[in-house]
Amino acid sequence: MLNIQPVAPQIDIVPPTLTMLAHSQLQTFEPSYINWFNTPSSPCSLFGFRFLSDQPLSLIPLPRSPASVSLSLRTKMAKVYTFEEVVKHNNKNDCWIIVFGKVYDVTQFLHEHPGGDEVLVSATEKDATDEFEFVGHSNTAKNMMSKYYIGDIDRPAVPVKHVQNPTQLQNQSSGVAMKIFQFLVPLLILGLALGLALGLRHYGKNG
Ligand code: HEM
């Protein structure tokens, strides 16, 4: 009896009809067909998966999506994740981030990221678009992102983010400086007045 195990994210790019066909037909396939299925030109390989001939038979994804599956097909069939689902992947062993409404699994990229792994882990559990933009990532960086793209975010589910931009931060720090200044000036005046009074008293006694 063949046991067909589902499937990695990549299988989501297969139109549902084909997936169903594969699941139902494969129950009846002889193992000899399986070798053919695994040849690079077979429909299976074309759509990004292959079969293990071990028992139980498993349906597993190919390491890379074949070029023959067009990007537009992949985009149309993109998996949509809820925010709740994405926030579970929030550590160094399993790190997903949301940028520009897309979900990226950057776990394998953590140790290669020029900005360090900590910054990526701290970008989890929120929409990290503003932080990503604030760094001023180059086009090279933006082009690299497609490698880690795993799907889109269910936008309405993303909580409103609170990221301060540089102007806000500047305003905030100048506000703090103003408060310190307002506190110090009266103290300074009081000190001067006291000093003057003591000085006058001293000279008055002596003179
Ligand atoms: C898939 C997502 C990401 C990719 C592919 C990526 C890639 C890169 C690359 C290639 C650089 C080198 C500078 C450049 O070429 O722009 C870089 C730097 C950096 N990245 Fe990212 N990054 C990603 C996400 C993020 C996020 C979400 C954050 C912040 C929350 C971040 C923070 C930084 C920082 C702080 C630097 C160092 C900037 C510097 O030293 O000037 N990155 N990143």
TrEMBL record:
<keyword id="KW-0479">Metal-binding</keyword>
<dbReference type="InterPro" id="IPR050668">
    <property type="entry name" value="Cytochrome_b5"/>
</dbReference>
<dbReference type="InterPro" id="IPR036400">
    <property type="entry name" value="Cyt_B5-like_heme/steroid_sf"/>
</dbReference>
<feature type="domain" description="Cytochrome b5 heme-binding">
    <location>
        <begin position="78"/>
        <end position="154"/>
    </location>
</feature>
<dbReference type="Pfam" id="PF00173">
    <property type="entry name" value="Cyt-b5"/>
</dbReference>
<dbReference type="GO" id="GO:0046872">
    <property type="term" value="F:metal ion binding"/>
</dbReference>
<keyword id="KW-0812">Transmembrane</keyword>
<keyword id="KW-0472">Membrane</keyword>
<dbReference type="GO" id="GO:0020037">
    <property type="term" value="F:heme binding"/>
</dbReference>
<keyword id="KW-0408">Iron</keyword>
<feature type="transmembrane region" description="Helical">
    <location>
        <begin position="180"/>
        <end position="200"/>
    </location>
</feature>
<protein>
    <recommendedName>
        <fullName>Cytochrome b5 heme-binding domain-containing protein</fullName>
    </recommendedName>
</protein>
<dbReference type="InterPro" id="IPR018506">
    <property type="entry name" value="Cyt_B5_heme-BS"/>
</dbReference>
<comment type="similarity">
    <text>Belongs to the cytochrome b5 family.</text>
</comment>
<dbReference type="GO" id="GO:0016020">
    <property type="term" value="C:membrane"/>
</dbReference>
<keyword id="KW-1133">Transmembrane helix</keyword>
<dbReference type="InterPro" id="IPR001199">
    <property type="entry name" value="Cyt_B5-like_heme/steroid-bd"/>
</dbReference>
<keyword id="KW-0349">Heme</keyword>
